[in-house]
What we know:
CATH superfamily of the largest domain: Spore Coat Polysaccharide Biosynthesis Protein SpsA, Chain A
CATH architecture of the largest domain: Alpha-Beta Complex
Helix content: 25-40%
Distance between the termini: 37 Å
Structural class: alpha/beta
Radius of gyration: 19 Å
Number of domains: 2
Strand content: 15-25%
Order of helices and strands: EHEHEHHEEHEEHEEEHHEHH
Number of strands: 11
Shape: globular
Amino acid sequence: MSAIVEVIVVNYNAGEALQRCLDAAFGQGPDVCVTVVDNASSDGSAERAEARFGGRADFRLLRQADNPGFAAAVNRAVRAGGLPKCDSSPGFLLILNPDCDLQPGALPELLAALQQDPAAALAAPRVTDPRGRVLRGTLRRFPDPWKSFVTFSGLWRLGRRWPLFEGVERSAQMPAETAPAEAVSGACMLLRKDRFFEIGGMDSEYRLHCEDLDLMYRLRRAGYHCLLVPGARAVHAQGTSSARRPLWVLWQKHRGMQRFFDKFQAESYALPLRWGVRAGIWLRFLLQLPLALVKASLGPLQKGRGAAP
């Protein structure tokens, strides 16, 4: 790589996934430095990371007394300034989930794509599950009431024949080469640091979910675009920490949906439709609540059978 990249990983009870993530990040080459922001984990993952990497000049651990959410943790890491090694770089941030592992050569691919496109502010890889299947959020459009309805109702399947029914996710239309995209996966995002500061960083009012879409939407409004870089790969074992608190995650996901709508789109619609969209968001929450309750009830049983703490 021709530039040093500051990697920011927000950890909350990610277990052994955190160490795998850090191994993969450091394995991208010598031109990375890593900051882990730990949101008051209780599973020992932060302590294990510190024991393994704490003696390195290109690693630091920032501990939080509580869990203010993903966006607030990222902002804290950026405000704290880079490690000495990173302060000398032109300024690139890699925001990486602790359950997302960069594949060999992914970071140089992302960096090269950004450096070749001055109008691009953010680049993301092809994100797959551990079995190699492309995850739905890898390539997305920004949600609006219609696209969200089509996605949630399952009518997006008709979009293969009729464009009117295309939903938010577009991963079935993955480009073969690097291409501009409305929105990409928030599990692994390489950004120009100056663009991140220009739009005010991440919105800390989101606790979990939709903060990545908010960031990309504001970049687009500022005149920049995102890139999807299929040649760069990352494997995302979704929900490593989220699975431990399904009710909280479900609530925050729908809270994030409403915030995104209220912040960027609500004023474009008549008042009855605004309330209809909000009602639809929380109706979806209620429909998914029984499954979350089942997952929450099974959690203690799985832990008792030897699942990771």
